[in-house]
Specification:
Layout (H helix, E strand, L loop, with lengths): L1 H4 L10 E4 L7 E5 L17 H5 L8 H12 L2 E5 L21 E2 L2 E2 L8 H28 L5 E8 L2 E2 L2 E2 L4 E4 L5 H9 L8 E3 L11 H6 L7 E7 L6 H20 L1
Parallel strand pairs: 2-3, 2-6, 6-11, 9-10
Antiparallel strand pairs: 1-3, 4-5, 7-8, 9-11
Helix pairs in contact: 3-7, 5-7
Length: about 260
C-alpha cells in the first residue's frame, strides 16, 4: 500500500495506530486529529514551526486524553498518525475541508492548486486506510459478540479568529442523540467544566463524518467529544479531563 501511494515511505510507517487492541470495554475510541507529524516527503509544507505546532495541524492534547480514557475504560483506541494538514480524516474525499489551502489565519502553500489526482492520492494513502480500519474493527467486534459504542475525541482552540470561546467541553451528536443526551444529563450539575451540546461545532459544520459513516447506519451508540485545548495542555489537565469524561461515559452507559 505504501509503495503504491508514493506519499508515505516505509520509514513513515502506517497512517494509523491502535492502542489496547484487546480492550474488553464496549467503547471504541477514535482520534482523527491525533498527530502533527508530517510524512518526510512533505517537508514543512511551507509553514512556520508556529503554524505546525498550532491547532491547524492537529488537536493538541486529544491523543493524550484518549490514551488515558482507553486505560480507564479498557477501550480500544484507533488514532491517526499524520497531521490533518495532509488530509483531515474526519472529512470525506468530496469535502472542501478534507484538504485545506487555508486554515483560520494560515495559508498552507503545499495544499494550494492541487489536482484531483493529487487529492485522490492523499485520500488513498491516509483517509481510506484509517476509516477502513475502523470499519474492520467494528466488524471484528460484532463477529466475536462485543458491542461497540463509538466515541471520537477532539480538542479545539480557546480563541478562534480573535473570538474567545467560553465553552470548555462540547458533547456533539448528529441525528442520533441518545448517548449525548445521557452524557449531558450526567454533566448537568458539574461545576468542573462548562459543558454544552454541539459546541463549538455541530453537524452543520461537517464534523460528525466518522459518526455518520460508521455508527448511525448500524444503530451504534455514538458521540463526539470536544475539549478546549488550554485545559489539556499538561498531564494534570489531561488526567482531570480523562477522569471526568470516562466517568460521564460510564454513567451514561449504565442508564
Amino acid at each position: 500500500m505504501l509503495a503504491e501511494t508514493r506519499l508515505l515511505s516505509e520509514a513513515d510507517g502506517d497512517p494509523y495506530a491502535i492502542d489496547n487492541p484487546q480492550g474488553r470495554g464496549d467503547v471504541l475510541l477514535v482520534c482523527e486529529h491525533a498527530s502533527r507529524l508530517l510524512p518526510a516527503s512533505f517537508g514543512s509544507m511551507g509553514l512556520s514551526e508556529e503554524a505546525l505546532a498550532s491547532h491547524i495541524a492537529w488537536d493538541p492534547g486529544a491523543l493524550a486524553v484518549s490514551k488515558l480514557m482507553a486505560r480507564r475504560l479498557d477501550a480500544t483506541l484507533i488514532h491517526q498518525r499524520f497531521s490533518r494538514l495532509i488530509y483531515d480524516c474526519n472529512r470525506p474525499p468530496d469535502s472542501p475541508g478534507a484538504i485545506r489551502d487555508t486554515s483560520e489565519i494560515y495559508r498552507i502553500p503545499a495544499n494550494e492548486s492541487l489536482s484531483d489526482a493529487e487529492k485522490a492520492a492523499r485520500a488513498k494513502a491516509i483517509y481510506f486506510p484509517f476509516q477502513n480500519r475502523i470499519a474492520d474493527e467494528i466488524a471484528e467486534r460484532a463477529q466475536r459478540g462485543q458491542a461497540t459504542v463509538l466515541v471520537t475525541v477532539h480538542s479545539f482552540t480557546p480563541v478562534y479568529f480573535g473570538t474567545p470561546r467560553a465553552v470548555e467541553i462540547g458533547i456533539l451528536h448528529d441525528k442520533d442523540s441518545r448517548l449525548a443526551d445521557r452524557m449531558l444529563g450526567a454533566a448537568a450539575d458539574t461545576s468542573l467544566y462548562r459543558v454544552e451540546r454541539n459546541e463549538p461545532y455541530g453537524p452543520a459544520d461537517g464534523v460528525t463524518h466518522t459518526l455518520l459513516l460508521h455508527a448511525e447506519p448500524a444503530g451504534l451508540l455514538n458521540v463526539m467529544i470536544e475539549i478546549r485545548n488550554d485545559l489539556i495542555a499538561d498531564e494534570a489537565g489531561q488526567g482531570v479531563a480523562a477522569d471526568f469524561l470516562s466517568g460521564l461515559l460510564t454513567e451514561a452507559l449504565t442508564q
